[in-house]
Amino acid sequence: MNTMVGTHDSTLPTSERITRLRELCLGLPVAVRVEPDPSLPFRGDTSFIDLGAVSLLSVHASPSELRRTRKMIGCSDPGMLRLDLLHHGRKVFRLDRQETELRPGELLLSDSSQEFHVSTVAADGDTWGTVMMFPRTLLPLSPHLLKHSLGTPLPGRDGVGALLSGLLTTLTSDNGQFERCDTDSLGRVVLDLLAAMCVTRLDACDAPAPESGRRALRVRIRSFILHHLHDPWLDPRTIAAAHNISVRYLHKLFQDEGCTVAEWIRQRRLERCQRDLANPALCHRPIRTIATCWGFPNAAHFSRAFRAAYGLPPREYRERSLHGAAVRHPASVGRSVATTS
Known about the structure:
This protein is of the alpha+beta class. The protein folds into two domains: 2-204, Jelly Rolls (Sandwich); 261-338, no CATH class. It has helices spanning 14-26, 70-75, 143-147, 159-172, 183-205, 209-227, 236-242, 247-253, 261-277, 287-293, 299-310, 314-322, 333-338, and strands at residues 2-5, 33-36, 44-51, 54-61, 64-68, 80-88, 90-95, 98-102, 106-111, 116-121, 127-135, 154-155. It has a seven-stranded antiparallel beta sheet with strand order 1-3-4-11-6-9-12, with helices on both faces. The relative contact order is 0.09. Residues 219-320 form the HTH araC/xylS-type domain. This is HTH araC/xylS-type domain-containing protein.
């Protein structure tokens, strides 16, 4: 699960190690350009951890400048979120022209659609941090709550933040204690903890008690849905019963989503199917098996829904994705499915 990246190999020339680091950063799910401070000796030690849809990167490095430019966003905005956890040193973020300083023990959430410039600083050597990247659709937060969670330092030394920080630190220092089959479950756990931390923070800041209760309930419901997408019988009645609320109240909670509960479930299922169809490691898995795994037992129904969302039947989408041909960007699935009957 833990893959070391050879930027730390002192036997390589400094220029080659810097080149490797630059290539690594440009190949991340949220690509950035990195420039180490030329006035200081270069050091870099990175490891990449794959948790399915969630990616983790641990970085021990000399002070550097990182940029995600408007041009880079225009070329490729993958619809991802990035969470930075700082262990040592300082990070100064300039997100959409707003400057924020991150100190050890704090976390900061940013969006791949945001232009940013990050300066890492350490008075006594290297900086050390963990970066988590994942599709924004996997975080069970409303658009309103997500907006208020971006670009603001989040506490990582108490409450839910301490649980999240501790788990991320453990995962990035993994010495083989986790099996490959654990990865998807661990990815869901870190996302649930992040969602809970964002809700707790906003509740403590400015939310009245009744609204905070509704907000927490929405997070629990979205998490429940994401954990039960494989169940073809998952429907509003089942979800409402599991949370001791009426179906009518469930629909009321989803009014801010811009789609019905059933449409939201279908969007998430299609996104999982799209991800698996485009995954070279799953190229031999039958399409019907992938569809069934994500709650589509009827092949014809799945084919129609997938084509409505992505503009291609599943088989053709898979062939084009695996051969590098242009396909409709996954970020459009929400808009497409929400208007499909």
